[in-house]
């Protein structure tokens, strides 16, 4: 089962030591009562949770704790802006200090979702596209939406060396129907010599040898594409997405650990670039470099795109 | 050495002579690899018509898709597309199903057609059964081998009352060196027996395009005699029920030639090794090391060259001395009258 957005955000939040999840006891559209925050000791600061981001995982609403918005004796946090839905008893309430769940919070541009989507954008995942065979035709049209990310170096999958000779093998770009229906398609790169045609509104693949009369079925093309554009909305089947992950239960393809390495690097370089007035922890350039060395080892990591990021930029 | 008798008295039993597929099989076996099998009863149910051939004998779950890379060939022995030969395309082998994808679809007429279940196939490597595109086939190399080995034949004539006989039907006989005497039954030998060498020395006269055999003796009408000729192995072919001279050599799998396989094979092997060497040297897709490796893997050229030289030497035309037969006194005067009865047959 593919990871959901919350899985990625949790991994990053815990990694940055920035995430706490509590359970709401009750709430209004501007407050939430959390039993775990009750502290009867005297002299406690009401500003302990100033500017902390509050996110109700159940209703997908977020806000920010007001100055002196903490009442220790009741465990109440007072936040703004008001949530459209008040937190109810039993709902998980997420508190973060460095980044909000998503954008739109006053005083913050970068959010956890932005960081995770930025990481997904830097990780290329293998996808296949099928196109119905028309006998005699020597071009196959691809989705016009693919023009925004499709490049020649993303056409085809890398293969391991030949198991017998040990020699490197060229990318596998195209497959055609197996002679026995129902079986996996077979490679046909050498026979068809597929070439990617870019430049127009609709990307195309041109083949050297068209299919003979009477051929049925589909060809399959292999691509590497940024993971942020191939999303299962609310756990549904994967489809083209222009927004990346946007709901807590949206699913993406890469493993959580891979996204964590890249998103952590993005988070640290964002924090390192922050000014004095914003929460930034204590991020050094060495920490950013170390995170990058881990990020570049992630399978499918698009080093070229990563190197084009501006300092502090979290999204390619 | 006795050769086939040419029509109209084509009496030699053809079964003692090899058919073309026997020559090719021997060459393919020595040169590389060959599989004679049938198309599987498991039907092709997907993919491109005419692209795939399923052969149960090729099933192997472990072999690489590139097993037949650029050097495997499929030849259809029978069926509607008999005689078609195709190259196995790169990565065109699916081991678990014994499936071969060919580089150009098989066609029945102009319709791409998958070979039917049970069709006999010959899978060869590194050369095709017969010529495909610019790639020479084993059949062509067999004919090359035959063309360098001599054999002999008897051409049957019926007397016309003269000593002159038109040879225009036998363009292979162009000079005297290629004939080796006239054989007849003129000294009382029953025609059920082998004819004997006649004492008259036949000659060839050439007058422009007209070539004439001069027997040295006037054979009566209805009397038959035979002219022994030397002929290259690829010119004397049994096809469509009769021996004959041809300029095209063996063409069909069941055509026959008069050269034993063991004589033809060394010569064909030499030609095949020469051809393969040229192919490897000229192959731009191979690196220097790969070429060296491929050349080293060829059969031992010197071994086959020695064997071929011996065959060629042994089969060179050698004229028969009349004394060998021991039944004709070569010192005796050439008779002025036929040694036959009034019917024209030996008495």
Percent helix of chain A: 10-25%
Number of E-type strands of chain B:
19
Distance between the termini of chain A: 27 Å
Q: What is the alpha-carbon Rg of chain B in Å?
A: 26 Å
Uncertain segments of chain A of ≥5 residues (pLDDT<50)? none
The chain pair forming the largest interface, with residue counts per chain, is:
A-B, 24 and 26 residues
What would you call the structural class of chain A?
alpha+beta
Roughly what is the average pLDDT of chain A, rounded to an integer? 91
How would you classify the quaternary structure?
heterodimer
Number of helices, where a helix is a run of at least 4 consecutive DSSP H or I residues of chain B:
6
List how many beta strands of chain A DSSP finds.
15
Distance between the termini of chain B: 29 Å
Structural class estimated from helices and strands of chain B: alpha+beta
Bin the strand percentage of chain B.
25-35%
Major sheet characteristics of chain A: 6 strands, antiparallel, barrel
**Poorly predicted spans of chain B:** 325-347
Order of helices and strands of chain A: HEEEEEEHEEEEHEEEEEHHH
Q: Describe the sheet with the most strands of chain B.
A: 6 strands, antiparallel
Number of helices of chain A: 6
Radius of gyration over C-alpha positions of chain A, nearest whole angstrom: 24 Å
Q: Please report which band the strand proportion of chain A falls in: under 5%, 5-15%, 15-25%, 25-35%, 35-45% or over 45%.
A: 15-25%
């Amino acid at each position: 089962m593919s990871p959901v957005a919350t899985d990625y955000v949790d991994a990053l939040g815990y990694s940055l030591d920035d995430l706490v999840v509590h359970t709401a006891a009750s709430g209004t559209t501007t407050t939430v009562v959390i039993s775990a925050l009750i502290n009867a000791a005297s002299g406690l600061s009401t500003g302990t949770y100033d500017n902390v981001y509050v996110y109700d995982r159940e209703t997908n609403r977020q806000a920010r704790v007001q100055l002196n918005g903490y009442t220790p004796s009741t465990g109440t946090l007072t936040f703004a802006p008001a949530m459209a839905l008040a937190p109810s008893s039993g709902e998980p309430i997420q508190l973060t200090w460095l980044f909000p769940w998503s954008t739109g919070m006053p005083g913050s541009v970068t959010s956890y979702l932005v960081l995770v989507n930025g990481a997904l954008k830097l990780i290329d995942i293998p996808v296949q596209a099928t196109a119905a065979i028309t006998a005699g035709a020597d071009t196959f049209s691809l989705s016009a939406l693919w023009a925004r990310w499709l490049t020649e170096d993303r056409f085809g999958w890398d293969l391991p060396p030949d198991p017998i000779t040990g020699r490197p093998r060229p990318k596998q770009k195209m497959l055609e129907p197996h002679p026995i229906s129902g079986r996996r398609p077979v490679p046909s790169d050498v026979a068809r010599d597929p070439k990617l045609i870019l430049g127009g509104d609709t990307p195309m693949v041109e083949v050297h040898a068209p299919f003979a009369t009477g051929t049925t079925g589909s060809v399959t093309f292999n691509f590497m594409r940024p993971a942020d554009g191939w999303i299962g909305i609310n756990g549904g089947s994967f489809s083209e997405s222009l927004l990346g992950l946007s709901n807590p239960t949206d699913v993406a393809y890469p493993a959580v650990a891979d996204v964590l390495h890249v998103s952590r690097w993005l988070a640290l370089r964002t924090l390192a670039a922050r000014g004095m007035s914003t929460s930034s922890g204590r991020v050094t350039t060495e920490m950013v470099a170390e995170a990058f060395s881990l990020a570049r080892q992630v399978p499918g990591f698009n080093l070229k795109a990563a190197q084009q990021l501006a300092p502090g930029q979290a999204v390619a | 050495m006795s050769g086939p008798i040419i029509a109209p008295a084509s009496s030699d039993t053809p079964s003692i002579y090899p058919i073309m597929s026997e020559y090719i099989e021997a060459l393919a076996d020595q040169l590389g690899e060959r599989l004679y099998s049938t198309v599987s009863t498991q039907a092709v149910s997907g993919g491109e018509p005419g692209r795939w051939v399923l052969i149960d004998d090729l099933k192997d779950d472990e072999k690489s898709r590139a097993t037949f890379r650029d050097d495997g060939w499929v030849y259809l022995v029978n069926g509607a597309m008999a005689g078609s030969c195709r190259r196995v395309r790169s990565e065109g082998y699916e081991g678990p199903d014994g499936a071969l994808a060919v580089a150009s679809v098989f066609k029945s007429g102009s319709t791409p057609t998958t070979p039917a279940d049970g069709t006999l196939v010959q899978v060869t490597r590194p050369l095709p059964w017969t010529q495909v595109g610019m790639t020479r086939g084993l059949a062509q190399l067999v004919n090359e081998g035959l063309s360098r080995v001599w054999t002999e034949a008897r051409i049957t004539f019926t007397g016309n009352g003269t000593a002159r006989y038109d040879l225009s039907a036998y363009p292979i006989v162009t000079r005297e060196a290629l004939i080796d005497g006239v054989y007849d039954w003129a000294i009382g030998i029953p025609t059920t027996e082998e004819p004997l060498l006649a004492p008259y020395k036949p000659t060839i006269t050439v007058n422009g395009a007209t070539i004439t055999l001069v027997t040295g003796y006037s054979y009566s009408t209805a009397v038959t005699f035979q002219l022994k000729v030397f002929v290259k192995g690829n010119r004397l072919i049994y096809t469509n029920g009769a021996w004959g001279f041809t300029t095209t050599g063996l063409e069909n799998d069941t055509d026959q030639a008069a050269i034993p396989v063991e004589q033809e094979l060394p010569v064909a092997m030499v030609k095949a090794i020469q051809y393969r060497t040229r192919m490897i040297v000229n192959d731009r897709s191979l690196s220097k090391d790969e070429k060296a490796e491929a050349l080293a893997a060829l059969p031992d050229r010197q071994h086959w060259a020695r064997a071929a030289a011996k065959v060629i030497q042994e089969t060179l035309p050698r004229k028969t001395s009349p004394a060998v037969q021991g039944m004709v006194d070569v010192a005796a005067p050439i008779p002025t009258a036929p040694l036959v009865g009034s019917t024209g047959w030996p008495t």
